[in-house]
Amino acid sequence: MTDKGQMVVVTGGTRGVGAGIARRFLAAGARVVICARRPPAAPVEVAGVEAEFRALDVRDAAAATDFFAEVAADHGGIDVLVNNAGGTPFGLLAETSAARQTKIVELNLLSPLYASLAAYEVMRRQDTGGAIVMIGSVSGTRPSPGSGAYGAAKAGLENLARTMAVEWAPHVRVNTVVLGLTRTESSHLHYGDEDGVAAVGRTVPLGRLADPADVGDACVFLASDAARYVSGAALHLHGGGERPAFLDAASVNHG
């Protein structure tokens, strides 16, 4: 499987990280279908080549099955699925309803499961197989105050990907990009103005937040022949992670 000419589906690909992922696949010569409940505010494109938008509520398992079958029929197959759709508002567990937490788990864990199952039905019949990339989060690898259900769902997603990688081998490879702090058009909602974004970026060892293009490059790699022996892996895209709080609290200078 090569990058150029791949048929790629990116869920939640109309904005933010998803749009960045779609653009990097377009730049690599892939054909890209993006899906979300609503169309993008502006075309997702690179050098005049535009991603095709199709409406889909990824939380609807039956709709996902129909969606992937239709895309495959129209485009001659599906080579890559990037499960990007997800997210959560801030809310402490004891201050939010069980119904809201259920919706967060549905979006971030069950929806990627539905999409992956539907894509697998297409990929398993293809001579070239396919590749699935989950967009995980560091919230699934550490305590996540204010996003507890989201963190739990992302932890489950990474485990799900490892299981799929075993069950669906050798025809379909499944990997996870474990994403850290990332700059999007919504960053101000979490970090404030430009000074706030810059201050948060300085807490990352590499000195900045990730850009959606960084995420896209990781996905293009995992979907490519260069990663042909990579499956069941978690690629941590977090700029070096988070500096341990005890280092700042200690009186000794640790550099």
Automatic annotation (TrEMBL):
<dbReference type="InterPro" id="IPR002347">
    <property type="entry name" value="SDR_fam"/>
</dbReference>
<dbReference type="Pfam" id="PF13561">
    <property type="entry name" value="adh_short_C2"/>
</dbReference>
<feature type="domain" description="Ketoreductase">
    <location>
        <begin position="6"/>
        <end position="171"/>
    </location>
</feature>
<dbReference type="InterPro" id="IPR057326">
    <property type="entry name" value="KR_dom"/>
</dbReference>
<comment type="similarity">
    <text>Belongs to the short-chain dehydrogenases/reductases (SDR) family.</text>
</comment>
<dbReference type="InterPro" id="IPR036291">
    <property type="entry name" value="NAD(P)-bd_dom_sf"/>
</dbReference>
<dbReference type="InterPro" id="IPR020904">
    <property type="entry name" value="Sc_DH/Rdtase_CS"/>
</dbReference>
<protein>
    <submittedName>
        <fullName>SDR family oxidoreductase</fullName>
    </submittedName>
</protein>
<keyword id="KW-0560">Oxidoreductase</keyword>
